[in-house]
Amino acid sequence: MLIDQQRLDRTALEANAGLLALLLRLELSLVPDVLQNVLPALTTWLKETPQANLRRSVQVWINALLERGASKEDLFMVESVEEDADMGGKLASWAEQLKEIGFQEGFALAEKAKEDGKAEGQVIALRGMLGSLLRNRFGQLPAAAMQRIAQASQAELEQWFERTLNAPSMQAVFDDGAPSM
Fold first, then answer.
1. Across 75-97, average pLDDT
2. Environment class of 133 (CB within 10 Å of its CB; exposed 0-12, middle 13-18, buried 19+)
3. What distance in Å separates the CA atoms of residue 163 and residue 4, rounded to the nearest whole number?
4. CA 39, CA 95: separation in Å to the nearest integer?
5. CB neighbourhood size of 123 (10 A)
6. pLDDT tens for residues 89-147?
7. Nearest to 140, CA basis, from 131, 130, 127, 149
8. CA 81, CA 160: separation in Å to the nearest integer?
């Protein structure tokens, strides 16, 4: 069966508690909807279905869905109905694991943003301190010097700051083969 996912009516899918609608929603929904709505409804449906072959087919389909969207270390495989009769428990366990993965990824992103923010703050502070030090030592800054400072990396700023302490002229601070100021 081929289904054009772009043409599916999401409202109709959400109103339908049938297996096909639940499976399509599982594949098309974002994690919060899956955790809050789809997995509980699918769990209920599976508990009420005595057909072992159909349950096994659903398990195989879910495994295929998971393989498409997860790395091997993050993959949660569904065992056979005989080995794992509590499909609802398995789905609840996945929901918790997905929440934990989301938390860990969110935490990692927050840490990276924090580090990036610190680094950017240091660069901004260095630009300001270098500009002040240059003005105190050599007077008004030429536009070319202000532009170089604004575009410089942290390493360049640190190097120029150190040079400023003993440089005889502003040109000597920036003297690295660049055009004169």
1. 56
2. middle
3. 65
4. 8
5. 16
6. 666 666 777 788 888 889 999 999 999 999 999 999 999 999 999 999 999 999 999 99
7. 131
8. 69
